[in-house]
Amino acid sequence: MASTPLPLTRLIEHFASLPGIGKKSAQRLAFYLLSLPGEQVESFAEAMLTAKRTIHHCKICQNLTDQEICDICASPQRDGGTICVVESPKDVLAFERLNEYKGKYHVLHGLISPLDGIGPEQIKVKELLLRLQQTEVQEIIMATNPTIEGEATAMYLSKILKPLGIKVTRLAFGIPIGAELEYTDNVTLNKALENRIDM
Amino acid sequence: MASTPLPLTRLIEHFASLPGIGKKSAQRLAFYLLSLPGEQVESFAEAMLTAKRTIHHCKICQNLTDQEICDICASPQRDGGTICVVESPKDVLAFERLNEYKGKYHVLHGLISPLDGIGPEQIKVKELLLRLQQTEVQEIIMATNPTIEGEATAMYLSKILKPLGIKVTRLAFGIPIGAELEYTDNVTLNKALENRIDM
To answer: Do A42 and A80 sit in the same domain of this protein?
Structure first.
């Protein structure tokens, strides 16, 4: 369009390449950015570059960190005998919000998905096994999502971990608290029935 | 949260400061950005800085441009005798998408809104009047939104422009094409009735 100068078009395209941001939102964000004071735009650009430059995977748990070993792995208050295995750093944040879990984590950075050509070698399984050789672990909690890929990954890991004499558990799946049975989908209801517990 | 390194927190905060982006989306965007190759992040940051540095208001119409005079004002194919007055550069884009309008624009960068302390001095009214002294204009189309501020601004400008012997018109407001009368709100229906035309 003749009415959009090139540097603005470029900025809009960059915003539009982000997930969940369409052409219209990208335009709105670019216009907003131009309306900010120069220092704020510089600080935003700087934050991007600094984050990309300094943040990498923790040597132990593969979570994101700007140090060699992340705060959780380095903390003497956390129980190294329990490892919660999750798909992504976002899942670690979800657990940390609870302020309940006192063990450590292992971030797989993906799930096994043969259809997408992702096998155990493409995710951080090797790093988990190496870790188990170096430290004594009593329990591994499989906290992958209840999707086909999440279940497959949990099953795969459980099969190779159990022979090592480690207790492997899986998060409980069932009816969410506050929901109504009437509106619960069949798969969830079936799971809740199957996994019923003594009371 | 102990589990989020500072450079990541900063990046998330910057994303969350954008309009329409909440804490969760900001997190998602920051994680996505970290997953991109380094060059792409650099190119994004560079696009921000370049856009902010090179883009300013066109000397004539106040639209955004990276030159002294924007493409539309500089074009000999556009009719300088008609000026379409809009609130923001986004409105220019909307008209340009039509590929119908052959006149020029004037971007006010805001609307008169006494409650927010915005008077005619805070928007680009002075620049419009100056422009009318320098070029001959036959018609000015008021294309501000049909809101209280948009109407007030159109009324204000029309009052000072008419005495200069310039034809001032307003966009037609009524029932949108394809809509159903049954579901049209009262104000719009009333406007459509009021502004009915001979056929």
So the answer is: no
Residue B57 bridge partners (DSSP): B64
Provide the b/e sequence for B100-116 (b: ≥16 CB within 10 Å): ebebbbbbbbbbbbeee
Residue A34 lies inside a defined structural domain of this protein: yes
Q: Which letter does DSSP use for residue A176 in this model?
A: P
> What is the residue range of B24's domain?
6-54
Whether residue B45 and residue A43 make contact (CB cut-off 8 A), yes or no, is: no
- Give me the CATH number covering residue A46: 1.10.8.420
CATH of the domain at B136: 3.40.1360.10
- Report pTM: 0.79
In a domain, B1, yes or no: no
Rounded to whole angstroms, how far apart are CA atoms A77 and A168? Answer: 22
Q: Please list the rounded mean pLDDT of every run of 10 residues in chain A (199 residues).
A: 81 95 94 94 96 95 94 93 94 90 94 93 95 93 92 94 92 87 86 82
Q: Is residue B126 part of a domain?
A: yes
Number of domains composing chain B: 2
Whether the pLDDT of residue B80 is over 80: the answer is yes
Q: Do A5 and B67 touch (CB under 8 A)?
A: yes
Question: Residue B102: what pLDDT?
Answer: 92
Note the pLDDT of residue B191. Answer: 84
Which of B54, B69, B85 represents a domain boundary (last residue)?
B54
Half-sphere exposure (CA, 13 Å, Cβ side) for B160? 12
CA distance A172 to chain B (A): 24
The answer to whether residue B69 is domain-embedded is yes
Is A41 in contact with B30 (Cβ distance < 8 A)?
no
Residue A115 and residue A134 share a domain: yes
Which residue of chain A is at minimal alpha-carbon distance from B54?
A7
Quickly state the pLDDT bin for B196 (edges 50, 70, 90): confident
Please tell me the distance in Å from A63's CA to the nearest CA on chain B.
9
Cβ of B93 within 8 Å of Cβ of A49? The answer is: no
Place of tokens 């008169």: B112
Q: What is the ipTM of this complex?
A: 0.79
Where helices occur in B17-101 by DSSP H, the ranges are: 23-35, 38-54, 71-74, 89-98
